[in-house]
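Q: I'm writing up a methods section and want to include an example of the input and output format. Could you take the sequence below and give the corresponding predicted structure tokens, formatted cleanly so I can copy it straight into the document?
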Amino acid sequence: MTRFSIVVPHLNSGPALARGLASILGQTGVDVQIIVVDGGSTDESRDTLERHREDIDVLIVEPDRGYADALNKGFARADGDVFGWLPADDELLPNALASVALVFAADHGCDMVTGACERVFEDGTRLIRPPDPRAWEKIHIQNVIEQTATFWRRELHRRVAPLDHERFPYIADWDLWVRMRDAGARLRTTDRLLSRYHFTADNQTSRAGRRFADEAFTLLRLRGPLGGLLAYAYRLLYRFDLEGCYDRPPTCPPGRARVFRLVRRTLKLVIGPRLMDMYNWHFAACQERGLKWW
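A: Here is the clean output for your methods example:
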């Protein structure tokens, strides 16, 4: 039977923690090691941990330097065949891990499995994101992998660990996928719906904004195409994005829109239409401006 190690990083997750833990405990057909890393919660989640203490294999309660640092602490104690993590406010769907185990069992050369994820936004909007069959072609440019629906073998993790919490406190998952791809990891996709990702006004993804843009710039500069030059092109586009040039319809002044069109034409000649069209930082620009971003 496949043994999964699932790390749950959290800090003051409130009632959501109980939902997340219940979704792990409800998995069948696999053996699951549950590792909870609590950064020092002071809310009702402490009661949830107390109620589930016998269900939690490893509980670490101590201050950390963000979610990626917490994950590194958790994965250091992991002993499963397959690793993954679940933010405390998200859910695994029924039989998700058993479905992943079947994919690994059917392909012993497979290092990673990623599936579909349902995104739930704070206004009740729901969106199912299927896995991208070209994820490995795009990952150096866009983070097209749904973290809560992604799992990988222990051996791969040991080769590329730890997560870089110093340079990428917000996008450490994206950096991890890039390094896994660079390490030669073989990725398989499944259309099975594996997880539910809850976006709230306060979670990290919903409020990343400029921090995402800054870290994405660093990642593309270090690991992106064109020797890192794409990072500078996207940062330039982001500045226009902040002025409303990517809004539909555009909200930037007409003069600025003309400059933007000229810049786009020039960049398209320099970096090519494919890379030009793969710019996807608009959600961060909306977040920075306090606009609806989903």
